[in-house]
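sorry for the late reply, my laptop died twice this morning and i had to redo everyting from scratch. anyway the thing you sent over, i finally got around to it. pasting the sequence first so we're on the same page, its 101 residues, then the predicted structure underneath. double check i copied it right bc i was rushing
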Amino acid sequence: QAYRITDDVEYSIVIEEMRNGNWGAFKGSDVQLEFLRIDPFVREFIKPDIDGVFKVGFKVPDVYGVFQFKVDYSRVGYTHHYSTTQVSVRPFHHTEYERFI
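ok and here's the structure:
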């Protein structure tokens, strides 16, 4: 998927844990999302909602290129969780800039 610079983005991920033989929503508060090219441009904590879906919203940086949404979560007693999605960020087309007449 492609985004434009300065677009508003919402990222969501479902993380579950097994409790008493049943899968349920994970309630951790220390899960982080990184939006990175080579170095992270955005690093935010992801908060779970009532249904256990972790969501975070942010504005895409004013830099274009190939970026990754990356969640790399390690915690003692839990399985290591690694998720990455590669996306493109493009500049505005010449017809998308504001006109000052």
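The chain has a mean pLDDT of 88.
thats about all i looked at so far, will dig more tmrw
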